[in-house]
Amino acid sequence: MRLADPARPGVLLRPLRLTDARAWRETRQRNATWLVPWDATVPPGSTERATTFTALVRRLRHQARQGSTYPFVIEVDGEFAGQVTVNNVVGGSARFASVGYWIDQRHAGRGIVPLAVALVIDHLFWTVKLHRVEIAIRPENSNSLRVVEKLGIREIGYAPKYLHIDGEWRDHRLYAVTVEETGPRGLVARVLGG
Q1: What is the per-residue pLDDT for 49?
Q2: Fewer CB near the terminus (10 Å): N or C of the chain?
Q3: Which helix (H) or strand (E) holds 164?
Q4: 124: phi > 0 → left, psi -120 to 50 → alpha, else beta; which?
Q5: Which residues contact 73 (CB under 8 A, 6 or more apart)?
Q6: Pick from 95, 91, 100, 120: nearest CA to 191
Q7: What is the pLDDT of residues 33-63, one digit of tens each?
Q8: CB 188 within 8 A of CB 122
């Protein structure tokens, strides 16, 4: 599945593939200082371990087939530029998911992440038929806070020691949007409309 908006033809979202290994590694290495403060880490004492890219993609693809995770690559003009990952997809009477994202610093500040997140959320609402999407952001992450601000996603709470990030349990601000709040045109229209 590919997600794109005709108004920004250079921005494309597609599934993460094994063939992305080199570009993914190079982008992550080049942006290590930029990304590490916001990266999830494995808590001490956990039985989980760091994994190879191949194992990561296989795990995410397996979860995607089960409908619990959707990993998307952000491409800008055909170049690997980052990732948007949908996690914790819940069906039944809840119908919600969580979204996380990161971008190569070279592409930051150009409106690419808000558009990518909007494309994913619209897809989750209109194709997957979810009702609610949540985003958790560290209070210090001004770039990610700007994304939810641009999308008009409301803050719903504060979660102390919510996720293990950069080696510690970190507090997060919680944001959420429901399908009713996006209006009939969705979040992409909101982003493109300014």
Answers
A1: 63
A2: C
A3: strand 154-165
A4: alpha
A5: 13, 14, 15, 16, 17, 20, 80, 82, 83
A6: 120
A7: 999 999 988 888 777 665 788 888 888 889 9
A8: yes
3-state secondary structure (DSSP) of residue 87: strand
Alpha-carbon torsion angle 39, 42, 44, 45, nearest 10: 170
Q: Which of 140, 112, 126 is nearest to 8 (CA)?
A: 112
In the DSSP assignment, the letter for residue 34 is H
Give me Rg for the CA atoms of the chain: 16
What 3-state class would DSSP assign to 175?
A: strand
Cα separation of 90 and 96, whole Å? 5
Neighbours of 162 (CB within 10 A): 17
Q: What is the CATH number of the domain that holds 24?
A: 3.40.630.30
The number of angstroms, rounded, from the C-alpha of 58 to the middle of its chain's C-alpha atoms is 18
Q: Identify the domain containing residue 185 by its residue range.
A: 3-192
Considering its fold, how many domains does the chain have in total? 1
Measured distance CA(133)–CA(89) in Å, rounded: 9
Q: At residue 4, what is the residue type?
A: A
Instruction: Indicate the average pLDDT of the chain.
Output: 92
Strands 8-15 and 154-165: unpaired
Q: In the numeric block, which tokens belong to residue 70?
A: 């959707």
Edge-to-edge order in the sheet of strand 96-103:
3-5, 8-15, 70-76, 79-90, 96-103, 132-137, 168-178, 154-165
More confident site: 87 or 4: 87
Q: Say how many C-beta atoms besides its own lie within 10 A of residue 164's C-beta.
A: 16
